[in-house]
Design a protein that fits this description.
CATH class of the largest domain: Alpha Beta
Strand order of the largest sheet: 2-1-3-4
Number of domains: 2
Structural class: alpha/beta
Number of strands: 8
Distance between the termini: 71 Å
Radius of gyration: 26 Å
CATH topology of the largest domain: Rossmann fold
Number of helices: 9
Strand content: 5-15%
Order of helices and strands: EHEHEHEHHEHEEHHEH
């Protein structure tokens, strides 16, 4: 049972409703300290469903935010909302109309195109699952299956980079380099051009680790953030990277997106070189 005292906003769609829900989240975040009840109603397929939604919205004095690409359902929702005096917000309609007017193009009016389960979508999902499965050296067997292997000491953004690249459909595994632990032997079997090493300024790493310890409620003077320990870890990491002969990137003053861009460029250049070599071998 919904609380009538809490403002209610419906996210209504003839697809999954993520777009409308995202707009609602972004909007209510501007009202700091206020609570809103959000109700997502996806896959609306007929007028009866719309009638039920609008009737309920009228009862709770709710707002309806919708992304309906079906002209018939959209018009019915508008008519019903006017009849019941329900406030509605059309997320897609104005943009679709603007593009139509500016270009003369006609929309497909087909629900779910953004989330169509095509080949590229499955590749992205597969890459994300791969990054999760082979994160932080969990399973060394994944190293030989990866498109890219990222190595580095703790807090050099290995996991965020792996996930960012996964959304670009790149299968990434990452391995932490710790002086007390010998890297898995599989790491040295990976072609060097597939491995990327991350280095960072020791003082920058000290700041990051000290902040991390504070967030965890631990003493910021612990060995994890000790400058001598950090120096030892970085020297050890450099030694491993030299053994591998991998590409090294200093991430000290780089955003994740920038580092990912460098890795992507490096990956695609190596991919092209690999394909050229295959073509030459055929000849």
């Amino acid at each position: 049972m919904m609380n009538k005292k809490v403002p209610v906003i419906y996210a209504v769609s003839d697809s999954v409703g993520e777009t409308a829900e995202s707009v609602i989240r972004a909007t209510v975040s501007q009202f700091v300290g206020e609570k809103f009840e959000q109700v997502r109603v996806p896959y609306v397929r007929d007028r009866e469903q719309i009638d039920q939604i609008i009737n309920e919205a009228a009862e709770y004095n709710a707002i309806v935010c919708y992304t309906m690409v079906s002209p018939e359902l959209r018009e019915h929702l508008i008519d019903k909302a006017v009849e019941k005096d329900v406030q509605i917000v059309d997320v897609l309609g104005p943009m679709i109309k603007a593009i139509e007017n500016a270009t003369g193009l006609l929309p497909k009016n087909k629900a779910g195109l953004v989330h169509s389960l095509d080949h590229e979508y499955f590749k992205r999902v597969e890459a994300v699952e791969f990054a999760v499965k082979y994160d932080d050296g969990k399973n060394p067997l994944g190293l030989l299956k990866a498109d890219i292997v990222i190595v580095g000491v703790s807090r050099t953004s290995k996991t965020p980079l792996s996930m960012y690249l996964a959304h670009k459909k790149i299968k990434v595994a990452n391995v932490p380099l710790v002086p007390e632990l010998e890297p898995p032997e599989e790491l040295f079997k990976v072609p060097p051009y597939k491995v990327v090493g991350l280095l960072i300024d020791p003082y920058k790493l000290n700041d990051i680790r000290s902040a991390r310890l504070k967030i965890m409620g631990l003493d910021s003077t612990a060995e994890y953030a000790d400058m001598k320990r950090i120096g030892e870890e970085l020297e050890y990491a450099k030694g491993i990277m030299r053994r591998i002969h991998c590409r090294i990137i200093n991430v000290s003053n780089r955003a994740i997106e920038e580092t990912a861009g460098i890795i992507l460029d490096y990956y695609h250049r190596n991919l092209e070189r690999e394909e050229q070599n295959k073509e030459e071998e055929k000849e």
